[in-house]
């Protein structure tokens, strides 16, 4: 489909407004799970990181290496596996 329906738009806006609820977490996870396998792997995260790296460079911000960012995410989220993240990793109680 090449367009976003009104229902899709509402779902997007609600997920954008409150990223902390389970429905929003699942929505955003599905957006970045490019291969649809239910896991965010190193390759998927690197592709999104590359866009942010370019943005940081253009804005003159300090560059945080991918490996450092990934290590911080693992420390913060504490996933069951260090090889990939799954939706449940983001929904764990703090």
Description:
This protein is mainly α and 94 residues long. The chain is 61% helix and 6% strand. It contains 5 helices and 2 strands. It has helices at 6-17, 22-32, 42-58, 66-77, 87-91; strands spanning 39-41, 84-86. A two-stranded antiparallel sheet has the order 1-2. The N and C termini lie far apart (38 Å).
Question: What's this, in brief?
Answer:
By secondary structure, the protein is mainly alpha-helical.
Give the integer mean of the pLDDT values: 90
Radius of gyration: 15 Å
Shape: globular
- The CA-CA distance between the termini, in Å, is 38 Å
SS summary, helix count: 5
SS-derived structural category: mainly alpha
What is the string of helix and strand elements?
HHEHHEH
User: Strand order, biggest sheet?
Assistant: 1-2
Give the strand content. Answer: 5-15%
Please tally the β strands and state the result: 2
Query: Unreliable segments (pLDDT under 50, ≥5 consecutive)?
Result: none
């Amino acid at each position: 489909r090449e367009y976003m329906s009104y229902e899709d738009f509402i779902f997007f806006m609600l997920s954008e407004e409150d990223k902390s609820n389970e429905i929003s977490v699942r929505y955003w996870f599905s957006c970045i799970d490019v291969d649809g396998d239910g896991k965010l792997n190193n390759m998927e995260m690197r592709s999104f990181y590359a866009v942010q790296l370019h943005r940081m460079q253009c804005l003159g911000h300090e560059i945080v290496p991918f490996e450092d960012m990934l290590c911080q995410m693992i420390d913060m989220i504490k996933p069951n596996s260090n090889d990939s993240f799954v939706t449940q990793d983001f929904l764990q109680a703090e």
